[in-house]
Amino acid sequence: MSEDNYSLSGRVFHKIREDILAGKYKTDETLKEKTIGDELGVSRTPVREALRQLELEGLVTIIPNKGASVVGISKQDIKDIYEIRARLEGLCAKWSADHITAEQITELEENIFLVDFHAEKKNYTQVLELDNKFHEILYEACNSKMLKHELSAFHHYVERVRKITLSMPDRVEKSNEEHRLIVDALKKHDALEAERLATSHMLNTISNMDKFGWDNLLEN
Amino acid sequence: MSEDNYSLSGRVFHKIREDILAGKYKTDETLKEKTIGDELGVSRTPVREALRQLELEGLVTIIPNKGASVVGISKQDIKDIYEIRARLEGLCAKWSADHITAEQITELEENIFLVDFHAEKKNYTQVLELDNKFHEILYEACNSKMLKHELSAFHHYVERVRKITLSMPDRVEKSNEEHRLIVDALKKHDALEAERLATSHMLNTISNMDKFGWDNLLEN
DNA sequence: TTTTGGATAATTGTATACAATAATGCAAGT
DNA sequence: ACTTGCATTATTGTATACAATTATCCAAAA
Question: How far is the CA of B69 from the C1' of D15 (A)?
């Protein structure tokens, strides 16, 4: 499912996922097909399809003949995801160093410039979007369909976490500085350095969360 | 979707995935809902659900109003997957070193013993099943829902590759020896050594494929 | 021969009907 | 008051109907 898929069933899928990640449904809350369908003005069919896709993403558990319920995401789960991403973003940067094009480097540099611009204005919605874009350029640059697929999924999964971290004191500036160092390494095609920096970039996000608190994110 | 989910829609999902991975459908071949449904003796509904799940797994592409087609897996894709797995299996072994229970270690040791037994008899079906089991015990032992989820998905994805590598000359024996070393490290709770060994275990699989040829696996 | 238009068929998208299963509530018995 | 059993309701599972979209084919024109 590409992100710019605006079919009805695609919209339902994204909407329910968004609602889950936004905390609209509590952990273990059952998701009734008819209820959600009525809410979104569609029949059960697209809702069912969406719920089954969400199960595959791990956001929902389905027990046959009983229905779907929301899988909770704990603080430990998020830490684990960032540890996983640390390794995979590292791999991505390593491969990107060998495959990145001049155009992509230009895009990354423009991205860094724009983040500076919007961070100053505390326009965090824009910053989040640019952060998305930065990483997606890298996912493309690594030249691996499989790695891109995995990282994109994770990236989406933790969007809510990223929204919060990026609004924490100084984090946008630090993050953008880390981005700049990664791009410098990529320009020099220094694969190992790029990998090291990208890995740190992820681990720093967790350090930042540890420092400034998880309180506004989770109940558990 | 747990593996022991025997609901009809679950069965359809697993069946289509199996057929794709077994090469029943060629790359870019379109998968028609009605055709598959008739073949499996079900209506389009469960087939549609399955196809949408398979899209999320990356095995299928769906273009709205046009339908689903099989995504090809190239040699490079497989190499990439093993590079990704190398890092994640390494992480898994690292975490397992701290969390593994005595029972799990016993299970792993029994597994190694049984692989020796069945390898001698060239009973490769059994060996593949035991290899599945070995890794799944580790996925459980690492104590991370997220990592387990990811690794299980990949593991399934390359089942066909593993089936082939395990039937190559001496590979079962070498693989089992690598398993033994990993378990030894886990028994000593030596996280770094376990990580190093698990990573190598994956990379060795690729070396093995490079040495003995990809010819009987792929067309591209 | 090649191309184009449009009718026809095939296929997907969604809603709904019905069947199977699970949850709920309530009355009867202890 | 507290179970237990059964009828009722709610919910999911699957099939089917119909609408919307796309693919195919063939005749007519260039």
Answer: 24
